[in-house]
Design a protein that fits this description.
With 166 residues, the protein is an alpha+beta fold. The chain is 34% helix and 14% strand.
Amino acid sequence: DREAMFDVTVDFPRMKVAVATRDERVVEIRYLPLSSKVVFPRNPLAERAAAQLGAYLPDPDTKFDLPLAIEGTPFQRRLWQALCAIPRGRTRTYGELARELGGAHFDMSRAVGQACGDNRLPIVIPCHRVVAADGIGGFAHSTGGYLLEAKRWLLMHEAPAFELRP
């Protein structure tokens, strides 16, 4: 069963957020269906990750300061760094990031999408903030189902609150 791979799961409105740790680092965060089993923290780092994810639910400005194992190609690392610079409540398109990283052609936009989908540390590295030019785009190598609902929820959760003025 897939829950056995994770050291904790946290309930979110459209999914469970699962965290795996290894050698005192967070190695993976994954969105699982709501029907997934609950996993209580199996170590202190999992407990810390669960607390920070839990704080993010009422406060999307929560800062994560977890020790991360970031493994990827130089291109993926550059993209993931660019994702971390996207402010909460804002989005960028695959094409905008492709141009920023050195090319506006279709293959570069596709590479950006692939690298977003390959991000093993979502929420902390906010790949959900990348959208298609004509809509929400895919999420975690998926174009439908609970993963797209998760992306919609994350974007709405992080959207700036509108100030009501008299």
